[in-house]
Every structure is written in C-alpha cells, then in structure tokens.
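All the exercises in this workshop are built on plain-text protein records. A record pairs a protein's sequence with a compact description of its fold. The structure tokens are whole numbers drawn from a learned vocabulary of backbone shapes. Once this layout is familiar, the rest of the handout is easier to follow. An example says more than a description, so a record of this kind follows.
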Amino acid sequence: MPQNDFNIAIVGAGIGGLGFAIGLSHLGVPFTIYESAPAFSAVGAGVGLGPNALRAMDLIDKRFRDLYTNIATGNLKPEKKHVMMEAMLMDEGLGEGESWFGHGGWGSKDFTRTGAHRKDLLDIMTSFIPKDAVRFNKRVKSMTQGEGSVALIFEDGEVVQHAAVVASDGVKGFSRRIVLQDKYPEAVEPVYTGKYVYRAMVPMDDAKDILGDLATDAKMFMSKGANISTYPISEGKLMNLVAFKRDDEPWKYPEFKYDVSKEDMLEDFVQHRPDGRLVKLLDWAKPTRWGIFHHPTTPTYYNSLICLLGDVAHAGGPHQGAGAGQCLEDSLILSRVLGKLYTSFPPSKSSPLFTPSPLRTKLVEAAFRAYDEVRRPRAQEQVRTAKECGEIYNLQDPVAGTDIEKVVKNLNDRFYWIWEHDLEKDVKQVEQRFVELLGEGMCAGVLESARL
C-alpha cells in the first residue's frame, strides 16, 4: 500500500473481520484484508444469531441481513418460532414425565430463532468483499508502529504500511500480545474455561429416526458436569450437535484441540447416564476434544494504531449463543466511528489523513478510544455471563441448582440485555464520543490544523 493512502489493514477473515470489512465498504473507507489461509474458510459448524446480531447486520448493510434471512434456519415447528432452546435432561428418559417437560423453553416474543451453517454465512459475507481487497497466504509475523502508520511484516518477508490495523485473528491471535504486552502482560493469554466439546452434524432424517419430534427444534440436554445442545441448520437438512464436558484438569496441550479414541469420547459421558438416543447421536461426532478458552479480562482494545475486534478481544464461551453477535456489534461500531473519521477529514492534499503524521495518529486513536469506551464494557460482560450460563446448563448454579423450573426461569430472564440492546444508540454514542475527543486534550487543535 502506498504510504500516503488512508487504508485500514484487517488481519483475519472470520465473522468479525468480514463484518467489519462490509461496514467499511458500505461507508467507502478503504481497507485490505490479510488472511493466512489460502482461501476463505469456515472453522466450526453451526452458528446462531440473536435479534441484536440481526440488527447489527441491518445497520452494517441492509443487504447483509436480507441475504442472511434467505439461508437462516429456525426451529422447524411454527409454535417454537420464538423459543431459543428447550430444557431437557441428559439422563435416561430426558426428563419425560416431569412437571416441566414439554414447556421448558426460554426465549421472547421479540426473539426469533435463527441459525446457519458457518460456511453458508461466510459465503454471504465474502460476496460483499471486492477480490482486490483481499490477500491470502499472508501470515503476519510482526507489526511495528510508526508516526501515523503501522508496518506489517509477513512471514514471506513482505512489508506493507497502513494507516491503522484492526486485528480479528481469533481467540489466540498474536495481535493481542502486541496490544497488551507492555502494560497488561497478565491479560495476554487466553484462559481455559474448564470445558471442552465434541462436535457433529447429523443428517436431519437420521436425527428424527433417533429423537422423533425432539430433533426438529433447539434443545439443551443438561446434567451435572456435561450438556448437549442440538438445533437445526441448513434449511432443516442437518442437526448441529455440540457435546460439552466439564474438565477439572489444566489444559496440557499445545493446540486448542486434540484427538482421542471413540471409546474415550463415549466414556466421557458414561457417568452422566445419558439416554441411549443421545449416545446414538454421538456416532456422528468426531472424537476431537475442542477446548473452550476465553478472555475474561481485557483492559483495553487498542494500543495507538492497532485495535482488537471479535474473539481476540473478548472471546467467551458459546453458552449464550452470543459470540458471533458480539463480533458483528464490534464490526458495526468500529466501522461507523472510522467512517465518521473518514468523512470528517476526506483524503486530499490538505487532509490530515493524506500522509502519516502525529496528527493522523491522534485522529485514529480518538476513533479507537471511542470504540473501546462503547464496546468493551458490554462485550466483557458477555464473556462473564457466558461462563455463568454454562454453570446453569451443568445444573451447578448456586440458586437454581438441579431444579429445572428454576433453571428455566433464570434462562428466561437472562438474555434480554443481549437481545434488546439499543445498537442505534451505540452508533450515535460512538460518533458523538469521537467528536468530543477531537476537542479534548488528546486531539486539541486537530480541527484547526485540518483547516491549514
């Protein structure tokens, strides 16, 4: 990239990075995506999106939500449209005969269950990205901040300059160390949550043969120390299954996943006396243990011209189905504040964005600070409450315990702050805060300088 161009480097092409790129593209802000893989790819299987995520899509680019709606799958029974999930037990009988059985769902009239295969979602997102704005096989080795620009050094030896970097390189992304190491070294590494999962996608016809009508809608099968979630994806052709296992031992492996035998996988659940139907569903699961890691503490999301977005900033457990939505909220708020910066100082020979300078650094820092102030408290609260929610599914909440009626009441009360959040207000707040910062000490004199 020519050094005198205002161009944002995006490191990573997952949901967060692509959502942010869609937002910048919609606002006309130049960017370049650097992805270490040889092509766009999807890790994982199903992804669920709540009302807040859908509003974020709409505010990023209305076409984004419209396209997602075309591929989204909800509960297959119309009467379950507004149910997020329904409580079941893991043990034999699944809780049938209990007073709560059949009406243990949680949700809201304002919640509509939607989910998709991660690959289908990413296919939609990549359709918005110009081909010349993406560079594959580009693994960043290091970053160096200068006055008004950042140098990215790649493993292949290439060096490029950008006005700023937004890193969305995942829960173990190296960019987190660059942002936090100097002041907050204790917060750099992701923390093992004490749980791992097995994953499967089961053909819906087979799932129905095993579970009957229970297969068609989202369920959470609970027990002490383990739980299994199931829900339909791919227009109801597949069931996504995630089997969670509590683990009191430290994570001892260099990667976040490792393979075990099929026997070891099944042995993980024997003590929970699982219903035979659930055991049959596990036939489709790969015997790979995926550790769940999170970032419970992130003191800041930026360091001068380098900013964190998505899981590298606030990875949390999947228990609230809110991780992808939080990435999209990041994408919305950060793209809007950078759009505000770009339109406030359109690039020209007289613009402070035209060439690297201390002034350009201050402008970008003001945008990143506004984003940090608006997004970090909410995103970190999601990390905290997600872990808490996982305890509920394991029937170890200090109040609800093993009482499923209390569990369901808790779950019916705990998601509103996520789903019904006012994102339009956040957009106004981040833009207003950016303007305020231009007049405060960190950017004093910016407007006057820009007129010179």
